Inverse folding.
């Protein structure tokens, strides 16, 4: 198992997310951020082990931020099925239609959670927004988890290692979008007023898990 | 592992991936398309930042790369009009951590 390193890029992502998204957390100190990150770090190995045991393929080149929540779910539910896949868009995708995106998961039942994350850095300036950056339906799941989101004006932000965890069906704190799930798909809806400048980045492979 | 490609209503490639969905393709085809997606994105970036000119783009891709470049400028403005660089922003954020 390779060592997981807390680097400045990750801290930058957190700082950016905290400041741009959730005013209630803007008082987080660097020490508090580091505490959260260390909690994630301590869960990474066990998360990977659990996923392997569940025969979920985890790409070896992935940076597995956020998978701590998966192990929590697995341990709590005891053998929940997890469905996973990837998607890479052919070019930056403006969210001009509704639903803005339909993820085909074929989980077999309506999933309770979806986690997606970007495995590698997205192209600078091609990623004004990510599909997870609409603030809706996300919440703090645990102190170990944070939904990394980009601000609407972060064209120069490096989005590497971003992840988004959504509890499907939870009440949105911010009504910027919504998710609708059935046994086969998850549909992302974005209201008209929030589509401008909203882009799904190209070239970055999005790894998703539903369970 | 299952590899797939997704096409829009016009028959143009929309996305590729692994897992359910789309039309199944081979791993070799997946890797070829993925490399092409990344190469095109890199060309758009270089063109946007002024590292290359459109004549440097392979002829068969020029129309697409130019269109994407135009869309990007429409969305973000000219690179020269950016108020701060990525490094500058990073320095600013790290400075308050």
């Amino acid at each position: 198992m390779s060592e997981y390193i807390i680097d400045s890029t990750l801290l930058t992502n957190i700082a950016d997310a905290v400041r741009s998204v959730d005013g209630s957390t803007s008082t987080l100190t660097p020490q508090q951020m580091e505490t959260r990150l260390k909690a994630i770090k301590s869960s990474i190995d066990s998360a990977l082990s659990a996923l392997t045991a569940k025969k979920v393929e985890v790409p070896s080149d992935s940076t597995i931020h956020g998978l701590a929540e998966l192990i929590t779910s697995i341990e709590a539910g005891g053998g929940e099925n997890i469905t996973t896949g990837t998607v890479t868009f052919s070019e930056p995708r403006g969210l001009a239609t509704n639903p803005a995106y339909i993820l085909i998961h074929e989980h077999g039942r309506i999933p309770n959670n979806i986690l997606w994350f970007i495995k590698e850095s997205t192209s600078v300036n091609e990623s004004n927004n990510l599909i997870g950056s609409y603030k809706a339906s996300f919440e703090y799941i645990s102190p170990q988890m944070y939904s990394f989101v980009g601000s609407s004006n972060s064209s120069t932000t490096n989005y590497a290692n971003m992840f988004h965890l959504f509890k499907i069906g939870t009440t949105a704190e911010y009504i910027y979008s919504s998710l609708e799930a059935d046994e086969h798909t998850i549909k992302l809806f974005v209201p008209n007023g929030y589509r401008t400048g909203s882009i799904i980045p190209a070239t970055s492979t999005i790894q998703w898990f539903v369970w | 592992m299952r590899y797939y490609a997704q096409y829009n209503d016009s028959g143009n490639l929309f996305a590729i991936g692994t897992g359910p969905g789309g039309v199944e393709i081979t791993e070799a085809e997946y890797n070829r398309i993925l490399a092409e997606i990344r190469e095109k994105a890199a060309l758009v970036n270089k063109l946007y930042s002024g590292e290359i000119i459109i004549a440097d783009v392979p002829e068969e891709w020029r129309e697409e790369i130019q269109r994407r470049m135009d869309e990007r400028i429409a969305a973000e403005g000219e690179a020269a009009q950016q108020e701060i660089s990525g490094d500058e922003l990073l320095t600013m954020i790290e400075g308050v951590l």
